[in-house]
């Protein structure tokens, strides 16, 4: 078997074994581009770290801690205000990331629907 003739993202040559009767490995073969894209888009969506609800819960806890420390006199009001502004920025960033993820998922679903419709026309049309 031969070595893949694909080029990695860092510019180096791929060292993976090429698929049978091909010059590329599965990660570089052009016929598998859509499949690779679909698999890659699922990364991070099955739970675990990076979930918005977990991030928001953490930010709420941090905000409650700042409020408690302010009321107990441990923090100056101006310091607490800046900390809360920073938390608000983080909350907006989580919301923006969530919107972007939703748009990507909708785009993926739309592309899959269009492909299935095109496939159906070719088979029956």
Description:
The protein is mainly alpha-helical. It has 2 domains: 1-32, no CATH class; 42-124. The chain contains 3 helices and no strands. The chain has helices at 33-41, 52-71, 77-124. Helix 2 (52-71) packs antiparallel against helix 3 (77-124). The longest helix has 48 residues, at 77-124.
Short structural description:
With 125 residues, the protein is mainly alpha-helical. It has helices at 33-41, 52-71, 77-124.
Keywords:
125 residues, mainly alpha, 2 domains, 3 helices
SSE inventory with pairings:
Elements: H1 33-41, H2 52-71, H3 77-124
Radius of gyration: 24 Å
The structural class is mainly alpha
Q: What spatial form do the alpha-carbon principal axes imply?
A: elongated
For the largest beta-sheet, the strand count, sense and barrel status come to: none
């Amino acid at each position: 078997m031969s070595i893949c003739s694909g080029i990695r993202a860092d510019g180096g040559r791929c060292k993976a074994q090429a698929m049978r009767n091909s010059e590329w490995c599965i990660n570089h073969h052009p016929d598998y581009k859509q499949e690779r894209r679909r698999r890659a888009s699922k990364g991070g969506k099955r739970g675990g770290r990076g979930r918005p609800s977990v991030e928001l819960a953490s930010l709420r806890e941090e905000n409650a801690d700042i409020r408690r420390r302010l009321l107990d006199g441990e923090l100056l009001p101006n310091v607490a205000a800046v900390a809360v502004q920073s938390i608000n920025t983080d909350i907006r960033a989580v919301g923006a990331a969530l919107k972007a993820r939703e748009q990507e998922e909708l785009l993926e679903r739309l592309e899959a629907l269009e492909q299935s419709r095109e496939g159906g026309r070719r088979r029956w049309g």
